Amino acid sequence: MPKVYFVVPCYNEEEVLNETVKRLTEKLTKLIAAGKADETSRMLFVDDGSKDRTWEIIQEKSAENKYVGGVKLSRNRGHQNALLSGLMTAKDNCCDCVISLDADLQDDIEVIDEFIEKYMDGCEVVYGVRNSRKKDTFFKRTTAQGYYKFMKALGVDIVYNHADYRLLGSRALDALSEYKEVNLFLRGIVPLIGYRSDYVYYERNERFAGESKYPLKKMLKFAFDGITSFSVKPLKIITNVGIIMCVLSFIGFIYAIVSLILGIATAGWTSLLCSIWFIGGLEMLCIGIVGSYVGKIYSEVKQRPRYRIETTIINEEKTDNNKKEKKQKD
Ligand code: UDP
Ligand code: MG
């Protein structure tokens, strides 16, 4: 039976956490009773530097429920880093597989059985894929689906309608730990790992309580990160646009000379002004895109740690409810 870990990143999730712990505990105990998961399986809640009572709730729950464990990050590092810290903690605790899911119960936990069945069939990676996006707003649905298509067009291998609800086996986790990049975009990295994989389809629910921790600004940054971390095509597009502009301006130049010779040249103030502005704008745009890649190289080169764990709580099986608290210091 596999030792399964659920990894749940939480940022200011006090409103949903009690319910999430309750439902996941029910799920885990059912899995254990059915012989689908080992008794040493655990849930790991990562507190991503929350400002509310999230960590206190995790501590309380871990004291009364042996299945609950927690990881507290020293500050808010964002969803992807929080998730990674949880995955690596699970890996260090020798689990067989990890299922990552959101704290807000948007991912249907009833399909967890299918995840584990596919793992037992030999899959190292199982992707949770949304059946439909009926419950998303029109804006979120169209932008998200357009984004997946755009990424595909740029040559990035990502799974359509899959977010971060997935199962990773221990070999996939080992492989993931070798990706050292700071600009994390896990749904782009996981397909690069390889191994046998499969999909599980589910219906995405609405948030149980509280509001989204991904405001538009964070979402745009995440989307842009995904593109610039996995594709150099924008740089190539810039080069092509530059070539086309040069050809066009050359044709314009010939036209201007010919008109001058024929004596039909007029004071082309408007066209001149327009083209100067247009080319100026285009250049700035191109420099901006190149700059964002340079900026990425800058942050990758520094190799700053992606997260720092302040405290870890795991209730070990042998000592039962004996809480193990490990404080990491520099
Ligand atoms: N989250 C996090 N750190 C952040 C932002 C979000 O750990 O800085 C977690 C959040 O608690 C949730 C998950 O990431 O478990 C997904 O966030 P959310 O549900 O707000 O995003 P949405 O579903 O609206 O895209
Ligand atoms: Mg959500």
Feature tags:
330 residues; alpha/beta; Spore Coat Polysaccharide Biosynthesis Protein SpsA, Chain A; 2 domains; nine-stranded mixed β-sheet; 10 helices; elongated; disordered C terminus; binds uridine-5'-diphosphate; binds magnesium ion
Question: What would you say this structure looks like, in words?
Answer:
By secondary structure, this protein is of the alpha/beta class. It contains ten helices and nine strands. It has helices at 14-33, 54-64, 79-92, 112-120, 138-153, 170-176, 186-193, 216-230, 233-262, 269-302, and strands at residues 4-10, 42-47, 68-73, 97-100, 125-130, 162-169, 197-202, 309-315, 323-327. Strands 7-5-6-4-1-2-3-8-9 form a nine-stranded mixed β-sheet, with helices on both faces. α9 (233-262) runs antiparallel to α10. The longest helix is centred in the last third of the chain and has 34 residues, at 269-302. The chain is elongated. Uridine-5'-diphosphate is lined by residues 9-11, 13, 48, 76, 78-79, 82, 102-104, 106, 212-214.
How confident overall, as mean pLDDT? 85
Q: In CATH, what is the homologous superfamily of the largest domain?
A: Spore Coat Polysaccharide Biosynthesis Protein SpsA, Chain A
CATH class of the largest domain reads: Alpha Beta
- Based on CA atoms alone, the radius of gyration comes out at 25 Å
Trace the largest sheet across and list its strands.
Answer: 7-5-6-4-1-2-3-8-9
What binds here, in terms of ligands, is:
uridine-5'-diphosphate, magnesium ion
**Largest sheet: number of strands, sense, barrel closure:** 9 strands, mixed
Which stretches of 5+ consecutive residues score pLDDT under 50?
319-330
Query: How many angstroms separate the termini?
Result: 37 Å
Structural class: alpha/beta
- The CATH topology annotation of the largest domain reads as Spore Coat Polysaccharide Biosynthesis Protein SpsA, Chain A
N-to-C order of helices and strands? EHEHEHEHEHEHHEHHHEE
Percent strand equals: 15-25%
| Count of runs of 4 or more consecutive helical residues | 10
